[in-house]
Design brief:
about 20% strand; 10 helices; Rossmann fold
Length: about 350
């Protein structure tokens, strides 16, 4: 791990004043883009949703390392549940952009799953364009090498940006074969299996809808030469052609959670790691659930969403700071350093 110690040293140095925060308005091709960045302005306590955090809202941007990282949120997600990672990236000099994926964010969750997965990669590319065009950030950035991080459905987006191909029909085929075992992937948060007498009806209804909506065999793929390093956290991956992820064109790393009950690892992250030659298993959290990488985790989650996202008993959330540092070091290595690390 000598390279990791070297990278942590490279990330150290003069502390940037604070974490700036602003948004770029939505338009037809992309939702609102939340931007975190190094700022010379002083942070003030700011409430965003359920969270109180220090931010320099509309603060003066300050030149960092000249690189951009895009974060793709999970289904129904918001930017606030990835601010711990964003702050770590900003401390290392990165500008961080988080597009709100249309039809699958905390304000508009009407089209999750394959409908959103089809649109998300182009939304990432548009977010890069928008940040580059913004007069506050364009002069401070070189977007010829951009990092990409995504969690859950955002992990699906990350795999697409790393060269992966998938199709709605492959999603349908997976659900036909493994509906009961991977039920939440196939139906989201609509319902759950309880072992009761209604389970048969739930499975029949789920398959009826899936077969009607997701019979499109056309491969989805998206290429953006600016993406130079990708991290996928607990990704949805069962509908990918694993041959397309065998030799990714860019460095690809995964973060996994051993107790993930939303995206069962053997159908998703473990398949990617088994197929991919040269992928890096950047961090493994054996006792973590699906929501471990939401940091901060929304308080007071109950019902099915709570069961899927709350931490399992015994999971130590304090270790996530080290995971964020590891992810950041990966991007430092592949986006900012010149030559091999000894």
């Amino acid at each position: 791990m000598r390279w990791f110690a070297f990278l942590l040293a490279a990330m150290a140095g003069p502390a940037l004043a604070d974490v700036g925060y602003t948004t770029i308005p939505a338009h037809d091709d992309v939702g609102t883009i939340t931007v975190f960045y190094p700022s010379s302005s002083a942070a003030q306590p700011a409430r965003r949703g359920a969270f109180l955090m220090p931010l320099a809202e509309q603060g003066q941007p300050e030149r960092g390392n000249g690189r951009l990282v895009v974060i793709s949120h999970g289904s129904g997600g918001s930017p606030w549940v990835h601010t711990d990672l964003a702050r770590t990236l900003v401390a290392a000099g990165f500008v961080v952009a988080m597009p709100a994926h249309k039809g699958d964010n905390y304000r508009d969750d009407g089209h999750p799953g394959p409908d959103s997965w089809t649109l998300r990669p182009a939304e990432v590319s548009t977010a890069i364009d928008e940040v580059q065009r913004d007069p506050r950030f364009g002069p401070l950035l070189d977007v010829s090498k951009v990092g990409m991080y995504g969690m859950s459905a955002g992990g699906h987006t990350a795999l697409s940006m790393a060269g992966g191909r998938w199709s709605p029909a492959r999603f349908k085929q997976h659900c036909e074969a493994h509906l009961a075992e991977d039920f939440q992937l196939c139906v989201g948060l609509a319902t759950r299996l309880t072992g009761g007498m209604l389970d048969g009806l739930k499975k029949w209804l789920a398959l009826s809808i899936i077969r009607r909506r997701f019979d499109d065999h056309r491969e989805r793929e998206h290429h953006d030469s600016r993406i130079a390093a990708v991290v996928a956290g607990v990704p949805a991956a069962a509908d990918f052609d694993m041959d397309s992820l065998k030799t990714p064109p860019v460095p690809l790393a995964l973060v996994t959670a051993g107790q993930d009950r939303w995206l069962i690892p053997r159908f998703h992250s473990e398949r990617v790691l088994a197929a991919c030659q040269g992928c890096i298993h950047l961090a493994d959290l054996p006792s973590a659930g699906h929501g471990a990488l939401l940091s901060p985790l929304p308080p007071g989650l109950t019902g099915l969403v709570g069961d899927m996202l709350n931490d399992p008993p015994g999971f130590d959330r304090h270790q996530l700071a080290a995971v964020d540092q590891t992810i950041t070091a990966f991007f430092v290595q592949h986006l900012t350093l010149v030559g091999p690390v000894k």
